[in-house]
């Protein structure tokens, strides 16, 4: 691929993939998995990561799941069911509506979001027909051909092994601009394991991402998930996935790789045949709802990045970074190996004080702030990975929780004996008054 004509990540190349995408993409164009450390992330890091995923997957009329499971979880599109943002621990549920003759009120935030998630009524057979017309000749079996919706799931057989293939059609709630563009950006390897990812802008203004990854982030099965996601210049999303097994999950691998090449996936999602079906998708209601918008008092991603970097000890190089409202991460390297640092900054968390600080290594500072320290093996880390964390909360409910691992990302093996930041350094960062200043902007 010519320089400056594409953005790609490749540590384990598949022969021919780069050459194909060089012809597919013309110009340059992060997902997160949730670590299982319940006490550290309850209501904290989990929520921050999920919001970043929501911003990346801001689509309507469909079911881009937010469960963090490999490529399928981060880049959505399981057509097997609907999904929504999981509720973080320690966050109070919305009050239930009351009965009676109360006057009509403005729809709540969640009601607006539900309105924006209406399913289309496109005949599944029409979606299946477009898939067949834009893929190599082979035997197809589709589910629910008599039904309606906005996605289709089939099993394709070219003689080399059966493979599940799905295509979903959506409107991007973020439009075709920056807010929606995260759907076609390659994720960070900090949270998603993949072999190759290329993203770019096509002639005419559409954007395309093609990614070769895995269904299971811990590789407990050899199921591969190769995916192409097209974001059109007018805000439609065509999302195609293929597997090297006859089902997304729970089926034995039937072939070494999924059947379609990068060029063939590109041809499938960019086909003009989708246009009549895309036009049938429900329009996004005109509301002020941004699925990934900040809650009151939350610092923005750039503010968190700037503040976190200003509090780091000297001698640490930043190898990777990312984040969004209320959440940020850095991959640090002091010459002794990479170390992931994650932080969440949350106002108005006083209601979760008892759950978060009711047990464990908790101290109370003279000014009333609670500080909790956790140290141990990362539940979903790779070999030899430990995680150190500090959780803090002011009497007013302003919470800062930070963790550091001795690996450069989740499910990666340890790169060093200990995390790059000590417990005392983590405390100093979490207790800095700079976080409240950043959240007040």
Brief digest:
It contains 13 helices and 19 strands. By secondary structure, the chain is α+β, with helices and mostly antiparallel strands. The chain folds into 2 domains: 7-30 and 61-85 and 113-278, no CATH class; 301-439, Protein Transport Mog1p, Chain A, CATH 3.40.1000.
Name a few traits of the molecule.
441 residues, alpha+beta, Protein Transport Mog1p, Chain A, 2 domains, ten-stranded antiparallel sheet, 13 helices, 19 strands, elongated, disordered N terminus
Describe this structure in words.
This protein is of the alpha+beta class. It has 2 domains: 7-30 and 61-85 and 113-278, no CATH class; 301-439, Protein Transport Mog1p, Chain A. It contains 13 helices and 19 strands. Strands 1, 2, 3, 5, 7, 8, 9, 10, 11 and 12 form a 10-stranded antiparallel sheet that branches. It has a 7-stranded antiparallel sheet with strand order 13-14-15-19-18-17-16, sandwiched between helices. Strand 17 (370-377) and strand 18 (386-393) form a beta hairpin. The longest helix has 12 residues, at 45-56. The protein is elongated and about 70 Å long. It starts with 6 loop residues before the first strand and ends with a helix.
């Amino acid at each position: 691929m010519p320089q400056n004509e594409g953005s790609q990540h490749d540590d384990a190349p598949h022969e021919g993939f780069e050459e194909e995408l060089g012809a597919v993409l013309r110009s340059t164009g992060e997902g997160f998995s949730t670590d299982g450390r319940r006490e550290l992330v309850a209501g904290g890091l989990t929520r921050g990561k999920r919001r970043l995923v929501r911003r990346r997957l801001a689509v309507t009329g469909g079911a881009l799941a937010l469960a963090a499971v490999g490529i399928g979880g981060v880049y959505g599109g399981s057509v097997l069911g609907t999904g929504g943002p999981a509720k973080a621990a320690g966050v109070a549920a919305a009050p239930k509506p009351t009965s009676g003759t109360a006057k009509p009120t403005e729809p709540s935030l969640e009601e607006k979001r539900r309105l924006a998630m209406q399913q289309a009524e496109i005949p599944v057979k029409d979606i299946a027909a477009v898939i067949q017309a834009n893929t190599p000749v082979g035997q197809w079996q589709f589910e629910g051909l008599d039904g309606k919706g906005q996605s289709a799931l089939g099993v394709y057989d070219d003689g080399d092994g059966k493979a599940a293939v799905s295509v979903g059609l959506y409107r991007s709630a973020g439009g075709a601009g920056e807010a929606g563009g995260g759907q076609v950006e390659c994720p960070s390897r900090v949270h998603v394991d993949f072999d190759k990812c290329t993203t770019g802008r096509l002639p005419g203004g559409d954007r395309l991402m093609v990614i070769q990854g895995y269904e299971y982030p811990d590789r407990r099965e050899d199921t591969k998930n190769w995916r192409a996601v097209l974001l059109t210049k007018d805000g439609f999303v065509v999302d195609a996935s293929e597997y090297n097994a006859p089902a997304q999950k729970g089926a034995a691998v039937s072939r070494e790789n999924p059947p379609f090449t990068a060029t063939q996936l590109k041809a499938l999602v960019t086909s003009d045949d989708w246009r009549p079906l895309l036009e049938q998708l429900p329009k996004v209601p005109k509301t002020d709802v941004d699925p990934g918008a900040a809650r009151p008092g939350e610092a923005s991603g750039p503010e968190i990045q700037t503040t976190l970097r200003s509090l780091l000890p000297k001698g640490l190089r930043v190898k990777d970074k990312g984040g969004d409202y209320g959440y940020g991460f850095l991959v640090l390297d002091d010459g002794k190996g990479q170390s992931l640092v994650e932080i969440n900054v949350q106002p108005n968390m006083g209601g979760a004080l008892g759950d978060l600080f009711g047990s464990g290594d908790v101290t109370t500072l003279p000014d009333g702030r609670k500080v909790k320290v956790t140290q141990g093996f990362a539940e979903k880390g790779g070999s030899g990975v430990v995680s150190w964390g500090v959780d803090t909360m002011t009497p007013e409910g302003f919470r800062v929780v930070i963790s550091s691992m001795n690996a450069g990302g989740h499910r990666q093996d340890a790169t060093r004996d200990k995390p790059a930041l000590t417990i005392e350094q983590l405390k100093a960062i979490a207790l800095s008054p700079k976080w409240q200043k950043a959240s007040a902007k």
